[in-house]
Write a structure and sequence with these properties.
single chain, about 200 residues, alpha+beta, 5-stranded antiparallel sheet, 5 strands, about 40% helix
Length: about 200
Amino acid sequence: MTVTVSRLYDSYSDAQSAVTRLEAAGLPHSDISIVANNSDNWFSGDKKDRDADGVDDRAEGAGKGAGIGAGLGGAAGLLAGLGLLAIPGLGPVVAAGWLASTAVGAAAGAATGGIVGALMNAGLSEDDAHAYAEGVRRGGTLVTAKVPDADRARFDSILNESAIDLADRRLAWEKTGWKRFDPSSRPLSADEIRQERQLYGTMR
């Protein structure tokens, strides 16, 4: 029996590390998914900065006399399949894995389609699904994994490193009037994303 676990990260690099640790712990990359906000265009067809250090990873790899895999720290699993997608309410995202595929497929469905519907169908509560979707909308990166129930504690421990406290973050949003993720809302601009990330930094 498998269960679905999710965590939200303020930075893509923290989420990237979580994915790498999951794979190193033996979880197949087919059971992992990542969805990252791309409103500030950190990832595009011409420029790929997957470690979010401000330098095109292909240039880093070439500078080391290696290919892009080495430039990404040997990320040959899930992260090698990153691509650009548009998910209702989130705007442009960089994503890979089963959740992203499900979210895009569900986008034409019911009101709880898109990423919220995909998370709920995977077993998350409606409240958590809305909060995770809002977190990505506000600039975060979501990592979701299907893990064996018997090993959940071990994988939870891996995912908890550098993850935000979802309950605390949701409470902060609610104090500003937020209630739930709205897939018809306008995606945030790059400037708004930067402001959100600055706010997250003060909350840590």
